[in-house]
Give the backbone structure.
Amino acid sequence: ADNQIFEAVDQFIDGLFGSEDQALIRLRQRAAEAGLPHIEVSAGQGKLLYLLAKLIGARRILEIGTLGGYSGVWLGRALQADGELVTLELDPAYAAFARTSFNEAGIGSQTLILPGPALASLASLTGPFDLVFLDANKDEYPEYLAEAARLLRPGGLLLADNVVRKGAVLDPLADDPLAKGAARFLAELSAHPQFEAIVLQQVGLKGHDGLALAIRR
Ligand code: SAM
């Protein structure tokens, strides 16, 4: 019953503040037709990404975990006119899907999708980035944290999704590499000399989870 009220309020909030344009609606339809996993951010979470990117006047954004480009379209829409979104995706089929998403959203020329394992792509990237959004495999979040510290400008914003995992992060089971990755990431982030950070616990359409926010010193 608790979940129902959280979901209903989330739907209410998204209805007021998270309305999707034609490109995002079409992206969802294509994703359903193509059978993409339904693990993209919610509309309201997309709006939060968009607002945070706008707030810092982001010109260069790095995303790890593109999937079909849903969060990428929200982030891309927040870019300055001369801005760029670089987004990393393991699965070449998802990367191709996202290419179409970005083109249809009118941000094709501002987006670079690098297919393959993120750690390999990261090694080829140079900063500075204004914003880094982690939303890929959680077991490598600690490695992505080190790369974010290297690539973000001072004052840049690090965001990391799915760091609460229904509370599993409190006491990760040995056979839960994702919760273990999130726990290790939060421990390292909290002690990291180059970041000031907090976690927002979230409930709603995506269940019970959380978003870490950190500023690069
Ligand atoms: N950010 C997307 C959105 O909200 O629309 C959702 C991303 S989805 C939760 C996670 C993505 O990370 C998947 O598409 C998966 O293929 C990708 N991924 C998993 N392991 C990866 C890796 N080692 N390198 C790059 N991408 C990876």
